Amino acid sequence: MFRNEVSRLDAITAILCIESSMTTSTIVDSMGNALHSNFAESPDQEYAKQERLILERLSLRDEFPEVISTGGSICG
């Protein structure tokens, strides 16, 4: 899909895709091997957790304080 603006959801999803394709994850250590993983019971909560982790690891907590305090959102 073409858009002129990238949302936070787009950026986080791109990072998760790249990280899951790598043998050793540099940002999201707890992801494990994408080929041997299961779907999360609560995908929205899992996304919010991964979003917080990525923002913390990239030192972007100050840029998105609402994500850290509210537990994240899928709205981007």
TrEMBL record:
Protein name per UniProt: DNA helicase
Source organism of this protein record: Anisodus tanguticus
